[in-house]
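*** Residues and shapes ***
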Amino acid sequence: MSGLTVYRSWDEINAPSFVNDWLHWLDCDPDPHVFYHPVLVRSWCDTYRSFQDVSPLFCVAEIDGITVFLPLVIWRRSWKNAFLRMIVPVGFAEFDYHDPVVAGPRNASIMKRFWAMVERELSGNPKIRYDTIDTSGWRFAYGEDGWEKSEDVCPFVDLNPYADFADYFSKISKSLRQDIGRQKRRMAEAGELRFRVITAAEGADALGMLPRFLEMHVKRWPNAFRAPGFHEAVLRNGVPAGIVHFSTLQLGSEPISWHLGFRYRNRYYYYLPVFLEQYAAYSPSKVHLSYLKEDCFAHGKGIFDYLRGAESYKSGWASDVAPLYEFRKESASLQALLKRGAFEGIQALKRLHAGN
């Protein structure tokens, strides 16, 4: 038996009964990612609903006794983006993975059947109008038409084969080991070096550090978009739930490096690091990363996932890379064609203005 239900009401998906089912599906998924945990989905939805016109298209399919769950939204853009109606996954541009939750074996046959059901519903339901479907961050391709391999990859390291942190640390490059040791000694000469993980009971401390954290993020990536209130919601909801792993590297009493990441099941997610520029010569992010790896061994082995991006600093630590896939589809209607043309024109003007 198979069937698809699309939930289009915020009240429905926020209902305790639905959230309980959702948590059960996650528990039954052998390899779920953290981004579709209700805590993070709710943080993203509540944030974006406060300043964007988004409405839910939460897809739940039953296929041969297995439940597959994919949270999508319709995003109605403003005049600045030609009033495009986009179907995107929850977490679009904020979350690295968008694969559905699968309460059972994730085999190719079931996933292709699931995606065919979703695509048929999105394209065939007259109540669901869109100009484009834009998704990325899939760890698997669930079809052929519209699917392609992304330029992004996700480096990772499997910590399970190593006896402990010392064993793992001895296997990374000699130059990296020596540099970390040297930087730790230099920092210790300047003051007491301390690695601190904010506990579930210390959520207020994490929120208190957030303004400084975001200030450093703005300095490091001045052109990056930051959804107003998103990181606050992630910390406020995620730290007490034990999903968010927020840590600092302190020199004396002063934090010089921060990291906002996630720990879920047997995987650690390296999500958002920042540090004080005046300490750049000490390589604080590199030292911080070594403490995060040590912390993973202290709390059980697993996968250390660097998420999207093949930045050079990850290469010395990662043992492998995972490919990613994306799906895009455009409506064939004349109205959609005109709106996409207007959108491209607006983007071209923005680029021209930025270059002047």
